[in-house]
Amino acid sequence: MGFTETLADRFDVGARGSDVRTELIAGITTFLAMSYIIVVNPFILAEAIRIPGYEFFEVVQMIAIATVLASAAATLVMALYANRPFGLAPGMGLNAFFAFSVVLGLGIPWQTALAAVFVEGILFILLTLVGARKYVIQLFPEPVKRAVGAGIGLFLLFIGLQELQIVIPDESTLVTLGGVFGNPWAILGVLGLVLTFALWARGITGSIVLGILATSLVGWGLTLAGVFERGVITPETLPAAQYDITPLAGAFVDGFAEIEPLTFVLVVFTFFFVDFFDTAGTLIGVSQYGDFLDEDGDLPEMDKPLMADAVGTTVGAMVGTSTVTTYIESSTGVEEGGRTGLTALVVALCFLASLVVIPVVAAIPGYASFIALVVVGVMMLQGLTEVDWDDPAWAVSAGLTVTVMPFAYSIADGLAAGIVAYPIIKIAVGEPGDVSAGQYVLAVLVAAYYVLQTSGVIL
Protein backbone atom coordinates (compact mmCIF):
# COMPACT_ATOMS: atom_id res chain seq x y z
CA MET A 1 0.00 0.00 0.00
CA GLY A 2 1.43 3.40 -1.03
CA PHE A 3 1.78 6.45 1.19
CA THR A 4 -1.26 8.17 -0.30
CA GLU A 5 -3.40 5.08 0.18
CA THR A 6 -2.16 4.75 3.76
CA LEU A 7 -3.20 8.33 4.51
CA ALA A 8 -6.58 7.83 2.90
CA ASP A 9 -7.16 4.67 4.91
CA ARG A 10 -5.96 6.17 8.22
CA PHE A 11 -8.33 9.14 8.00
CA ASP A 12 -11.19 7.33 6.27
CA VAL A 13 -11.00 9.90 3.46
CA GLY A 14 -12.96 8.02 0.81
CA ALA A 15 -15.89 7.20 3.09
CA ARG A 16 -16.30 10.90 3.85
CA GLY A 17 -16.52 11.90 0.22
CA SER A 18 -13.07 13.39 -0.14
CA ASP A 19 -9.62 12.52 -1.49
CA VAL A 20 -6.05 13.10 -0.36
CA ARG A 21 -5.39 15.95 -2.83
CA THR A 22 -8.50 17.83 -1.70
CA GLU A 23 -7.56 17.37 1.96
CA LEU A 24 -4.07 18.72 1.33
CA ILE A 25 -5.42 21.82 -0.42
CA ALA A 26 -8.00 22.31 2.34
CA GLY A 27 -5.30 22.12 5.01
CA ILE A 28 -3.10 24.68 3.27
CA THR A 29 -6.12 26.93 2.79
CA THR A 30 -7.04 26.79 6.47
CA PHE A 31 -3.46 27.45 7.53
CA LEU A 32 -3.14 30.48 5.25
CA ALA A 33 -6.39 31.87 6.66
CA MET A 34 -5.15 31.30 10.24
CA SER A 35 -1.49 32.17 9.78
CA TYR A 36 -1.93 35.80 10.81
CA ILE A 37 -2.18 34.59 14.42
CA ILE A 38 1.54 33.75 14.36
CA VAL A 39 2.25 37.47 14.10
CA VAL A 40 -0.81 39.05 15.74
CA ASN A 41 -0.92 36.99 18.95
CA PRO A 42 2.69 37.75 19.97
CA PHE A 43 2.29 41.50 19.54
CA ILE A 44 -0.89 41.52 21.66
CA LEU A 45 0.52 39.38 24.48
CA ALA A 46 3.90 41.11 24.46
CA GLU A 47 2.16 44.28 25.63
CA ALA A 48 1.61 42.49 28.93
CA ILE A 49 4.39 39.91 29.10
CA ARG A 50 7.61 41.65 30.05
CA ILE A 51 10.67 39.53 30.82
CA PRO A 52 13.63 41.20 32.54
CA GLY A 53 16.74 41.21 30.36
CA TYR A 54 14.84 40.78 27.11
CA GLU A 55 13.72 43.46 24.67
CA PHE A 56 10.17 43.75 23.37
CA PHE A 57 10.84 42.11 20.01
CA GLU A 58 12.74 39.27 21.64
CA VAL A 59 9.66 38.53 23.74
CA VAL A 60 7.52 38.79 20.62
CA GLN A 61 9.61 36.07 19.01
CA MET A 62 9.30 33.84 22.08
CA ILE A 63 5.51 34.18 22.04
CA ALA A 64 5.47 33.51 18.28
CA ILE A 65 7.18 30.17 18.89
CA ALA A 66 4.79 29.41 21.78
CA THR A 67 1.86 30.26 19.49
CA VAL A 68 3.09 27.85 16.85
CA LEU A 69 3.73 25.03 19.32
CA ALA A 70 0.34 25.37 21.03
CA SER A 71 -1.48 25.56 17.70
CA ALA A 72 0.33 22.54 16.30
CA ALA A 73 -0.26 20.45 19.46
CA ALA A 74 -3.99 21.19 19.57
CA THR A 75 -4.48 20.67 15.84
CA LEU A 76 -2.59 17.37 15.95
CA VAL A 77 -5.04 16.13 18.58
CA MET A 78 -7.89 17.29 16.33
CA ALA A 79 -6.35 15.38 13.43
CA LEU A 80 -5.26 12.14 15.05
CA TYR A 81 -7.88 11.78 17.79
CA ALA A 82 -10.99 13.58 16.53
CA ASN A 83 -10.43 13.12 12.76
CA ARG A 84 -12.06 16.48 12.01
CA PRO A 85 -10.84 19.19 9.59
CA PHE A 86 -10.59 21.99 12.16
CA GLY A 87 -7.57 24.13 12.98
CA LEU A 88 -6.87 25.52 16.45
CA ALA A 89 -4.77 28.39 17.77
CA PRO A 90 -4.75 31.00 20.55
CA GLY A 91 -8.09 32.79 20.28
CA MET A 92 -8.45 36.39 19.22
CA GLY A 93 -10.33 38.30 21.88
CA LEU A 94 -9.15 35.88 24.53
CA ASN A 95 -5.58 37.09 24.00
CA ALA A 96 -6.72 40.72 24.26
CA PHE A 97 -8.63 39.89 27.46
CA PHE A 98 -5.49 38.22 28.83
CA ALA A 99 -3.26 41.19 28.06
CA PHE A 100 -5.37 44.29 28.52
CA SER A 101 -8.04 43.28 31.04
CA VAL A 102 -6.31 40.77 33.29
CA VAL A 103 -2.63 41.75 33.29
CA LEU A 104 -2.64 45.46 32.45
CA GLY A 105 -6.14 46.25 33.76
CA LEU A 106 -6.21 44.29 37.01
CA GLY A 107 -2.48 44.34 37.59
CA ILE A 108 -2.29 40.55 37.83
CA PRO A 109 1.19 39.17 36.99
CA TRP A 110 1.31 37.58 33.56
CA GLN A 111 2.57 34.37 35.13
CA THR A 112 -0.61 34.20 37.24
CA ALA A 113 -2.74 34.84 34.16
CA LEU A 114 -1.03 31.89 32.47
CA ALA A 115 -1.77 29.82 35.58
CA ALA A 116 -5.46 30.71 35.21
CA VAL A 117 -5.38 29.57 31.58
CA PHE A 118 -3.71 26.32 32.67
CA VAL A 119 -6.44 25.68 35.27
CA GLU A 120 -9.11 26.40 32.65
CA GLY A 121 -7.51 23.85 30.33
CA ILE A 122 -7.44 21.18 33.02
CA LEU A 123 -11.10 21.85 33.86
CA PHE A 124 -12.01 21.48 30.19
CA ILE A 125 -10.14 18.18 29.95
CA LEU A 126 -12.00 16.80 32.99
CA LEU A 127 -15.42 18.05 31.83
CA THR A 128 -14.82 16.65 28.36
CA LEU A 129 -13.82 13.24 29.73
CA VAL A 130 -17.15 12.94 31.60
CA GLY A 131 -19.16 14.30 28.66
CA ALA A 132 -20.35 17.46 30.44
CA ARG A 133 -19.31 19.88 27.67
CA LYS A 134 -21.02 17.77 25.03
CA TYR A 135 -24.20 17.64 27.12
CA VAL A 136 -24.37 21.42 27.55
CA ILE A 137 -23.80 22.05 23.84
CA GLN A 138 -26.59 19.61 22.98
CA LEU A 139 -28.90 21.77 25.12
CA PHE A 140 -28.55 24.62 22.63
CA PRO A 141 -31.97 25.33 21.03
CA GLU A 142 -32.22 24.00 17.48
CA PRO A 143 -32.67 27.46 15.89
CA VAL A 144 -29.39 28.51 17.51
CA LYS A 145 -27.64 25.46 16.09
CA ARG A 146 -29.07 26.13 12.63
CA ALA A 147 -28.25 29.85 12.65
CA VAL A 148 -24.81 29.83 14.21
CA GLY A 149 -23.07 29.07 10.89
CA ALA A 150 -24.58 32.12 9.23
CA GLY A 151 -23.79 34.20 12.32
CA ILE A 152 -20.15 33.18 12.14
CA GLY A 153 -20.22 33.91 8.41
CA LEU A 154 -21.50 37.44 9.02
CA PHE A 155 -18.88 37.86 11.75
CA LEU A 156 -16.13 36.71 9.37
CA LEU A 157 -17.43 39.02 6.67
CA PHE A 158 -17.41 41.99 9.05
CA ILE A 159 -13.87 41.25 10.25
CA GLY A 160 -12.61 40.79 6.71
CA LEU A 161 -14.14 44.03 5.42
CA GLN A 162 -12.55 45.94 8.30
CA GLU A 163 -9.13 44.37 7.81
CA LEU A 164 -9.28 45.16 4.09
CA GLN A 165 -10.15 48.76 5.08
CA ILE A 166 -13.28 48.62 2.94
CA VAL A 167 -15.29 49.33 6.09
CA ILE A 168 -13.75 51.80 8.55
CA PRO A 169 -14.68 53.33 11.95
CA ASP A 170 -16.89 56.43 12.00
CA GLU A 171 -17.71 58.65 14.98
CA SER A 172 -21.31 59.24 13.89
CA THR A 173 -22.37 55.87 12.53
CA LEU A 174 -19.68 53.65 14.16
CA VAL A 175 -18.75 52.19 10.75
CA THR A 176 -18.88 53.49 7.21
CA LEU A 177 -17.50 52.80 3.73
CA GLY A 178 -13.82 53.68 3.50
CA GLY A 179 -12.06 55.63 0.79
CA VAL A 180 -11.42 52.41 -1.08
CA PHE A 181 -9.99 53.72 -4.34
CA GLY A 182 -7.73 56.18 -2.62
CA ASN A 183 -6.16 53.39 -0.57
CA PRO A 184 -3.77 50.94 -2.29
CA TRP A 185 -4.29 48.40 0.53
CA ALA A 186 -8.06 48.38 -0.05
CA ILE A 187 -7.67 48.40 -3.84
CA LEU A 188 -5.54 45.26 -3.78
CA GLY A 189 -8.01 43.68 -1.34
CA VAL A 190 -10.94 44.39 -3.66
CA LEU A 191 -9.06 43.06 -6.69
CA GLY A 192 -8.15 39.95 -4.72
CA LEU A 193 -11.80 39.47 -3.77
CA VAL A 194 -12.89 39.80 -7.39
CA LEU A 195 -10.33 37.21 -8.48
CA THR A 196 -11.15 34.78 -5.66
CA PHE A 197 -14.92 35.01 -6.12
CA ALA A 198 -14.46 34.52 -9.88
CA LEU A 199 -12.30 31.43 -9.36
CA TRP A 200 -14.79 30.02 -6.85
CA ALA A 201 -17.74 30.68 -9.16
CA ARG A 202 -15.92 28.77 -11.88
CA GLY A 203 -15.50 25.81 -9.54
CA ILE A 204 -11.70 26.05 -9.45
CA THR A 205 -10.29 23.83 -6.69
CA GLY A 206 -8.07 25.79 -4.34
CA SER A 207 -9.66 29.09 -5.37
CA ILE A 208 -9.05 30.73 -1.99
CA VAL A 209 -5.38 29.68 -1.86
CA LEU A 210 -4.88 30.89 -5.42
CA GLY A 211 -6.53 34.19 -4.62
CA ILE A 212 -4.35 34.74 -1.54
CA LEU A 213 -1.11 33.84 -3.31
CA ALA A 214 -1.91 35.81 -6.49
CA THR A 215 -2.81 38.92 -4.50
CA SER A 216 0.36 38.61 -2.40
CA LEU A 217 2.51 38.29 -5.52
CA VAL A 218 0.92 41.38 -7.06
CA GLY A 219 1.61 43.37 -3.89
CA TRP A 220 5.24 42.28 -3.73
CA GLY A 221 5.65 42.83 -7.48
CA LEU A 222 4.48 46.44 -7.18
CA THR A 223 6.78 46.95 -4.19
CA LEU A 224 9.86 45.47 -5.82
CA ALA A 225 9.14 47.46 -8.98
CA GLY A 226 9.33 50.65 -6.93
CA VAL A 227 5.68 51.64 -7.30
CA PHE A 228 5.26 51.56 -3.52
CA GLU A 229 7.77 51.71 -0.70
CA ARG A 230 8.19 48.80 1.73
CA GLY A 231 5.63 49.04 4.50
CA VAL A 232 2.82 50.42 2.32
CA ILE A 233 1.37 47.26 0.79
CA THR A 234 3.97 44.76 2.02
CA PRO A 235 5.53 44.26 5.47
CA GLU A 236 8.29 46.77 6.17
CA THR A 237 10.52 44.12 7.76
CA LEU A 238 10.43 40.34 7.94
CA PRO A 239 11.23 39.08 11.44
CA ALA A 240 13.74 36.30 12.07
CA ALA A 241 12.72 33.42 14.32
CA GLN A 242 14.12 33.05 17.84
CA TYR A 243 13.94 29.56 19.26
CA ASP A 244 14.92 30.09 22.91
CA ILE A 245 11.66 30.30 24.87
CA THR A 246 12.97 29.03 28.20
CA PRO A 247 12.18 32.34 30.00
CA LEU A 248 8.55 31.93 28.92
CA ALA A 249 7.85 28.20 28.93
CA GLY A 250 6.88 26.92 32.36
CA ALA A 251 6.42 30.42 33.78
CA PHE A 252 2.82 29.51 34.68
CA VAL A 253 4.17 27.49 37.63
CA ASP A 254 5.44 30.68 39.23
CA GLY A 255 1.95 32.12 38.82
CA PHE A 256 0.60 29.85 41.56
CA ALA A 257 2.98 31.31 44.13
CA GLU A 258 1.00 34.39 45.10
CA ILE A 259 -2.66 34.53 44.09
CA GLU A 260 -5.71 36.31 45.45
CA PRO A 261 -8.28 33.45 45.47
CA LEU A 262 -11.47 35.34 44.53
CA THR A 263 -9.88 37.32 41.70
CA PHE A 264 -8.14 34.20 40.41
CA VAL A 265 -11.43 32.26 40.38
CA LEU A 266 -13.18 35.07 38.49
CA VAL A 267 -10.39 35.23 35.90
CA VAL A 268 -10.54 31.45 35.42
CA PHE A 269 -14.35 31.59 35.13
CA THR A 270 -14.29 34.34 32.51
CA PHE A 271 -11.68 32.52 30.41
CA PHE A 272 -13.76 29.37 30.86
CA PHE A 273 -17.08 30.95 29.85
CA VAL A 274 -15.89 32.76 26.72
CA ASP A 275 -13.78 29.83 25.49
CA PHE A 276 -16.63 27.37 26.12
CA PHE A 277 -19.12 29.23 23.95
CA ASP A 278 -16.61 30.37 21.32
CA THR A 279 -15.54 26.77 20.77
CA ALA A 280 -19.10 25.47 20.80
CA GLY A 281 -20.25 28.08 18.31
CA THR A 282 -17.32 27.48 16.00
CA LEU A 283 -17.67 23.69 16.05
CA ILE A 284 -21.39 23.79 15.33
CA GLY A 285 -21.13 26.57 12.74
CA VAL A 286 -18.30 25.06 10.72
CA SER A 287 -19.81 21.59 11.09
CA GLN A 288 -23.12 22.87 9.77
CA TYR A 289 -21.33 24.34 6.78
CA GLY A 290 -19.53 21.04 6.13
CA ASP A 291 -22.75 19.02 6.59
CA PHE A 292 -21.29 17.19 9.59
CA LEU A 293 -24.31 17.64 11.87
CA ASP A 294 -26.89 14.91 12.44
CA GLU A 295 -30.67 15.31 12.12
CA ASP A 296 -30.83 16.89 15.59
CA GLY A 297 -28.26 19.52 14.73
CA ASP A 298 -25.53 17.87 16.84
CA LEU A 299 -21.98 16.96 15.87
CA PRO A 300 -21.43 13.20 16.33
CA GLU A 301 -18.64 12.35 18.79
CA MET A 302 -18.37 16.02 19.73
CA ASP A 303 -16.30 15.17 22.79
CA LYS A 304 -13.29 14.38 20.59
CA PRO A 305 -12.89 17.82 18.94
CA LEU A 306 -13.69 19.40 22.31
CA MET A 307 -10.77 17.50 23.80
CA ALA A 308 -8.46 19.01 21.19
CA ASP A 309 -9.01 22.59 22.35
CA ALA A 310 -8.81 21.50 26.01
CA VAL A 311 -5.40 19.93 25.42
CA GLY A 312 -4.32 22.91 23.32
CA THR A 313 -5.25 25.38 26.05
CA THR A 314 -3.30 23.39 28.64
CA VAL A 315 -0.23 23.07 26.41
CA GLY A 316 -0.52 26.74 25.44
CA ALA A 317 -0.39 27.87 29.07
CA MET A 318 2.63 25.64 29.66
CA VAL A 319 4.64 27.11 26.76
CA GLY A 320 3.46 30.69 27.35
CA THR A 321 0.37 31.74 25.41
CA SER A 322 -3.30 32.44 26.07
CA THR A 323 -6.36 30.21 25.60
CA VAL A 324 -6.40 27.98 22.49
CA THR A 325 -9.68 27.51 20.67
CA THR A 326 -11.10 26.11 17.42
CA TYR A 327 -10.83 28.70 14.66
CA ILE A 328 -13.67 30.02 12.55
CA GLU A 329 -11.16 30.20 9.70
CA SER A 330 -11.45 26.39 9.56
CA SER A 331 -14.46 27.04 7.36
CA THR A 332 -12.10 28.11 4.58
CA GLY A 333 -10.70 24.59 4.42
CA VAL A 334 -14.14 23.04 4.68
CA GLU A 335 -15.22 25.19 1.74
CA GLU A 336 -12.31 23.74 -0.23
CA GLY A 337 -13.60 20.23 0.49
CA GLY A 338 -11.77 19.27 3.70
CA ARG A 339 -13.75 16.58 5.51
CA THR A 340 -11.29 14.63 7.67
CA GLY A 341 -8.46 14.94 10.14
CA LEU A 342 -6.01 14.85 7.25
CA THR A 343 -6.90 18.50 6.66
CA ALA A 344 -6.08 19.26 10.31
CA LEU A 345 -2.84 17.26 10.05
CA VAL A 346 -1.73 19.47 7.16
CA VAL A 347 -2.60 22.56 9.22
CA ALA A 348 -0.52 21.28 12.14
CA LEU A 349 2.44 20.46 9.89
CA CYS A 350 2.21 23.91 8.30
CA PHE A 351 2.36 25.46 11.76
CA LEU A 352 5.46 23.41 12.58
CA ALA A 353 7.02 24.32 9.22
CA SER A 354 6.46 27.99 10.01
CA LEU A 355 9.06 27.63 12.77
CA VAL A 356 11.58 27.59 9.94
CA VAL A 357 9.88 29.99 7.55
CA ILE A 358 8.24 32.50 9.88
CA PRO A 359 9.59 35.37 7.69
CA VAL A 360 7.87 33.81 4.67
CA VAL A 361 4.58 33.43 6.52
CA ALA A 362 4.87 37.02 7.68
CA ALA A 363 5.44 38.10 4.08
CA ILE A 364 1.78 37.47 3.23
CA PRO A 365 0.19 40.94 3.41
CA GLY A 366 -2.90 41.31 5.55
CA TYR A 367 -5.13 42.28 2.64
CA ALA A 368 -4.30 38.96 0.99
CA SER A 369 -4.91 36.69 3.97
CA PHE A 370 -8.18 38.41 4.97
CA ILE A 371 -9.65 37.85 1.51
CA ALA A 372 -10.50 34.35 2.76
CA LEU A 373 -12.69 35.72 5.56
CA VAL A 374 -14.87 37.78 3.23
CA VAL A 375 -15.25 34.99 0.68
CA VAL A 376 -16.14 32.32 3.22
CA GLY A 377 -18.32 34.73 5.19
CA VAL A 378 -20.52 35.28 2.17
CA MET A 379 -20.69 31.56 1.45
CA MET A 380 -21.70 30.67 5.01
CA LEU A 381 -24.77 32.90 4.87
CA GLN A 382 -26.54 30.09 3.02
CA GLY A 383 -27.16 28.52 6.45
CA LEU A 384 -30.02 31.01 6.89
CA THR A 385 -32.14 28.82 4.60
CA GLU A 386 -32.30 26.18 7.36
CA VAL A 387 -34.12 28.51 9.77
CA ASP A 388 -37.92 28.36 10.03
CA TRP A 389 -38.57 32.10 9.88
CA ASP A 390 -42.34 31.58 10.21
CA ASP A 391 -41.92 30.29 13.77
CA PRO A 392 -41.57 33.26 16.19
CA ALA A 393 -39.25 31.42 18.57
CA TRP A 394 -37.02 30.34 15.70
CA ALA A 395 -37.04 33.78 14.09
CA VAL A 396 -36.14 35.69 17.27
CA SER A 397 -33.61 33.18 18.55
CA ALA A 398 -31.89 32.65 15.20
CA GLY A 399 -32.08 36.32 14.28
CA LEU A 400 -30.37 37.43 17.49
CA THR A 401 -27.75 34.69 17.19
CA VAL A 402 -26.81 35.87 13.70
CA THR A 403 -26.82 39.61 14.34
CA VAL A 404 -25.36 39.89 17.84
CA MET A 405 -22.18 38.03 16.83
CA PRO A 406 -20.82 40.77 14.54
CA PHE A 407 -22.38 43.66 16.45
CA ALA A 408 -20.92 42.53 19.80
CA TYR A 409 -17.80 41.21 18.02
CA SER A 410 -18.19 37.90 19.84
CA ILE A 411 -19.39 34.42 18.89
CA ALA A 412 -20.14 33.74 22.56
CA ASP A 413 -22.40 36.80 22.90
CA GLY A 414 -24.41 35.80 19.83
CA LEU A 415 -24.94 32.30 21.15
CA ALA A 416 -25.97 33.67 24.53
CA ALA A 417 -28.57 35.96 22.95
CA GLY A 418 -30.18 33.09 21.05
CA ILE A 419 -30.08 30.73 24.04
CA VAL A 420 -31.84 33.22 26.32
CA ALA A 421 -34.37 34.37 23.71
CA TYR A 422 -35.67 30.91 22.78
CA PRO A 423 -37.46 29.96 26.05
CA ILE A 424 -38.76 33.53 26.49
CA ILE A 425 -40.53 33.48 23.13
CA LYS A 426 -41.75 29.92 23.65
CA ILE A 427 -43.39 31.00 26.89
CA ALA A 428 -44.85 34.09 25.17
CA VAL A 429 -46.54 32.01 22.46
CA GLY A 430 -47.89 29.48 24.97
CA GLU A 431 -45.49 26.64 24.19
CA PRO A 432 -43.33 26.35 27.35
CA GLY A 433 -43.42 22.57 27.15
CA ASP A 434 -41.32 22.66 23.97
CA VAL A 435 -38.35 23.81 26.04
CA SER A 436 -36.48 21.19 28.06
CA ALA A 437 -35.58 21.67 31.71
CA GLY A 438 -31.92 21.77 30.78
CA GLN A 439 -32.54 24.56 28.27
CA TYR A 440 -34.32 26.63 30.93
CA VAL A 441 -31.42 26.14 33.34
CA LEU A 442 -28.87 27.03 30.65
CA ALA A 443 -30.78 30.19 29.71
CA VAL A 444 -31.02 31.32 33.34
CA LEU A 445 -27.29 30.71 33.97
CA VAL A 446 -26.29 32.56 30.79
CA ALA A 447 -28.63 35.47 31.59
CA ALA A 448 -27.28 35.67 35.15
CA TYR A 449 -23.71 35.77 33.89
CA TYR A 450 -24.43 38.65 31.53
CA VAL A 451 -26.31 40.60 34.19
CA LEU A 452 -23.27 40.35 36.46
CA GLN A 453 -20.75 40.87 33.67
CA THR A 454 -22.35 43.91 32.04
CA SER A 455 -23.09 45.54 35.39
CA GLY A 456 -19.42 45.34 36.32
CA VAL A 457 -19.85 42.95 39.22
CA ILE A 458 -17.52 40.43 37.55
CA LEU A 459 -14.93 40.84 34.82
UniProtKB/TrEMBL annotation:
The keyword Cell membrane applies. The keyword Membrane applies. It comes from the Archaea. One of its GO terms (molecular function) is purine nucleobase transmembrane transporter activity. InterPro entries: Azg-like, Azg-like_bact_archaea, NCS2. The chain crosses the membrane at residues 24-44, 56-81, 88-108, 114-136, 148-168, 180-201, 208-228, 262-286, 306-328, 340-360, 367-384, 404-425, 437-458. Keywords: Cell membrane, Membrane, Transmembrane, Transmembrane helix, Transport. It is a multi-pass membrane protein. It is found in: Cell membrane. GO terms for cellular component: plasma membrane. It holds the Pfam family Xan_ur_permease. Belongs to the nucleobase:cation symporter-2 (NCS2) (TC 2.A.40) family. Azg-like subfamily. This is Putative MFS transporter, AGZA family, xanthine/uracil permease.
